[in-house]
Structures are given as C-alpha cells and as structure tokens.
Amino acid sequence: MVEKNQTQISEEYSAKKKEGAAEYGESPSNFDAGRMIRPRGDVVSWTKRVSALARSGRAAEAVAAFARMDAQPNALTLASVLPACAALRSLSAGRAVHRFWLRRGGAPGANLIVDNAVLDVYIKCGALGSARRLFDGMPERDVRSWTALVWGLARGGSPHDAVGMFRAMLLDGGGAAPNEATVVSVLHAVARTGSLACGEALQSYALKRGLAGEQVVGNALINAYAKCGDAPMAFRAFCEIPEKDLVSWGTVTMAMAVNGRCREALLLLLLMLRRGVQPDSVVFLALLSACCHAGLADLALLFLDAMARVYGIAPGKEHYTSALDACGRAGRLDRFEEIVSQLPVEYDQQVLGVYYASASKWEPLWERFLDVEVDAGGGMYALMSKSLADAGRWEDASAVRERMTAKRIEKDVACTWI
Q1: pTM across the whole model
Q2: Angle 75-87/59-67 helices, nearest 10 degrees?
Q3: Could you confirm whether domain 143-242 is CATH 1.25.40?
Q4: In what ranges is there compositional bias, type Polar residues (predicted)?
Q5: In which residue ranges of the chain is pLDDT below 50?
Q6: What is the CA radius of gyration of the chain?
C-alpha cells in the first residue's frame, strides 16, 4: 500500500473543505470542517445545508438533502426547503411538505414564514385554489402574503380578481401596506384588463406613497398605459422615472410601437443613442414592430441587419417574423426569400404563417411549404390552400388539401366572443 504524504493529505483536506463550504454556502477560509463530521440527527446542520443549497440555486439538491434528513425538521427547515420546491415548480413536493407541517400541528397562523412559503409554492405551481384557501385561513397576513396572491392572480389569468385583492388589501385593518412589488403586480393585472381608469388611480396612489419614482414601478406604469392604449401617458410615466434603465427604454419604445406611433419610436432610438444607451434585442423588436405597423419594410430590414453587424445581437425568431410581416404589408415580396434563407432557427408555424399569409405571388414559394418538415397546424394548411385557390392555382390548392388529409390534420372550427 502506498502511503499518502503530507502534501496529498493537505490537498485532499482542502478539497473536502471547499466542497463542505460550498454545500453550506460559506467561504472556505471561514468554514469549520469539523461541522462535516457532526453526529447524526443534528437538525441545525441539516437546516443550514438545505438552506444553503436552496439559496445557491441548487433546488433539486436542497429537496434531496431534505429527504435524506435523519433529524426531525423544524419550522426553519421547512421554510428553507419550500422555496426550492417553488423553484422546481414541484407541486407534489410542496404539498408533501405542507402536509408534514399540518401533521406537526402547524395550522395556519402557527408560523407566518412557513405559511408564506407554502403560499408561494402553490402560486408558482399554478394551484391558485389551494393558495386562496390557505390565504383565507391565515389569521395574520403581511405584505408578502398579499403581494404573493396579487401576483399569482395577475399572472394566473384572473387579473380582475388581482385588482379586487389589491383593493381588499387597502381596506384590510391588518396594517400591511403595499410596497413596490405589490404595486407592480397589480399594474400587471391592470395591463391585462386594459382599464385606463385603474391605471391612473394606481399612478396617483404610487405618487402619494412615494413609489412612482421607483424604477420597477415606473416601468410597470409604462407597460400598463401602453396596454390600455394611452401612449402619451406611457411616455409621461417614462419621463418621470429619475433613473432609466434598458428595460425603461425598451418598454416605452414598445409602447409607441404597439400604439402605431412609429415616428416616436424612432425618435426614442435617437435619444437613446445620444445618451449613450446601447439598444438590446427588446428595443430592436419594438423598432421592428413599429416598422411593421407603418409598412416601412426597408427600415425594418436595415434594423435587422444592424442588430448583428453593428451591435452584435443575434436576431431571434420574433425579429425575423416582424421583418417578414413588414415586407408583406409593404408588398416587398422580393425580400422574402433573402430573409427566410438567413433564418438560423427551424421554420415553425408562426414564421410560416407570416411568410405565406403575406404572399400573393406564389410561384415557387408554396413549394417550400410542402418540402419543409414543419409541424404546421390545420389553420396553416387551410390558409395555404385558400391563398392558392384565390390565385387561381386550383391544382396546387388541391395538393395542399390532399397532404392535409394524408397527415390527418384537421382545422379547428373558428369562434368569436362577439
């Protein structure tokens, strides 16, 4: 047997110390390696290990460490592992931890930190019914409880309920005052509802509370006003942000674009460049959308080229889609082939939809649809067939329908809420 020399032993000890420090979320220089050989059943060590793994983004390892515990978890242990369950979007793991807490006598109100952690799991996993039942049963709620539920309702398809929950928070006598995260969450809901009156009321509330100057609140206000169709108010909210970040510029540029204000979007780009702010992919998408609405095909292609050549930003699928749409609306079909040939991503239904819906001169274009292996839906096949039929190409239209039948693709029946 070859005996290890002192250097090898020292190196192994250092490596183990680094591993232990990483697991406990501490600096190797300050880490006590003796903690790694503590007796079994030490809940303090287990809790710190689970917490460190969860906080360092190693959620799966945190849950695994919790499952291996040979000590009885306490409330702090559960509050440490529940964020890992939320990060993994593991509803089953979150429910299991919650059930364990209830069996231990942890009824709602026994520990607000654990209640909020469970609430966060249910919301992030989309179990809004369970989240609402837990929230209603909590005798004590803080700003985190209210904000979590408002956020979940706003992003879970119940924006009106989110606004209603915010109003209930203001009327609640528990003393939990909304913070910037709460206001941002309800503004997201307002953007979904399109209620301009709610947006204005929230801006007034934010001004009174001194939150309107917060960067994240200002960005949310810009988005809300844009979705409500009030571009001037969106620009006003932008101007009132003391410190504007790239999100602010991108949001206000998109606000101008979606409301058909191409000139204002282009002026914002010039203002950005004068202030030394480099546009990112979001800003370019807003500019391409503005060009699309205005039918400025040449300018859209100029932006698409500048992204990669000048700013080193690789255009994404949505950028190519907007450029194709701009060309289609402007009747610049001569540039279609050039753009499609540059696509670094696989064709999909969305890109093909823009490509073919805009084309009236089919010649060889439709053959790409038949040759490309793409998972197009029934609507895309029906659109292709109709367009060829409108162009008087009945045999080609029939060929598309025959392929649709051969692949057993059906078009969903259209419906409307009107």
Answers
A1: 0.73
A2: 140
A3: yes
A4: 1-11
A5: 1-2, 9, 13, 31, 33-39, 347-348, 360-362, 364, 373-375, 413-418
A6: 28
- To which residue do tokens 């059906």 refer? 410
- Those residues whose C-beta lies under 8 Å from the C-beta of residue 349, and which sit 6 or more positions away, are 374, 375, 376, 377, 380
pLDDT of residue 18: 63
Q: What is the per-residue pLDDT for 42?
A: 82
Residue 146 is which amino acid?
W
pLDDT of residue 316: 84
Look up residue 339 and give its two tokens.
């753009």
Scored b (16 or more CB within 10 A) or e, 271-291 reads ebeeeebebebebbbbbbbbb
CA torsion angle 106 111 116 117 (round to 10): -70
Contact status, residue 147 vs residue 182, Cβ threshold 8 Å: yes
How far apart CA 52 and CA 46 sit, in angstroms, is 10
**CB proximity list for 382: less than 8 A, separation 6 or greater:** 404, 411
Q: Could you report the per-residue pLDDT of 221-241, keeping only the tens digit for each?
A: 999 999 999 999 999 999 999
Q: According to the model, what pLDDT value does residue 33 have?
A: 44
CA pair distance 109, 67, nearest whole angstrom = 25
Q: Where are the domains of the chain?
A: 44-140, 143-242, 244-345, 359-418
- Which positions ≥6 away from 308 have C-beta within 8 Å? 314, 315
Of the CA atoms within 13 Å of residue 117, those in its CB half-sphere come to 24
pLDDT for 399: 77
Q: Is the dihedral of CA 388, 390, 392, 397 positive or negative?
A: positive
In the block, which residue shows the tokens 């400025």?
Answer: 296
pLDDT score, position 164: 94
Element (H, E) at 276: none
Which residue matches tokens 């906080």?
55
Residues 6+ apart with CB under 8 A from 199: 187, 190, 191, 221, 224, 225, 228, 230, 233
Closest by CA to 369, choosing from 397, 411, 395, 342, is 397
**Helical ranges in 259-393 per DSSP H:** 262-274, 281-294, 297-309, 317-330, 336-342, 349-357, 365-371, 378-390
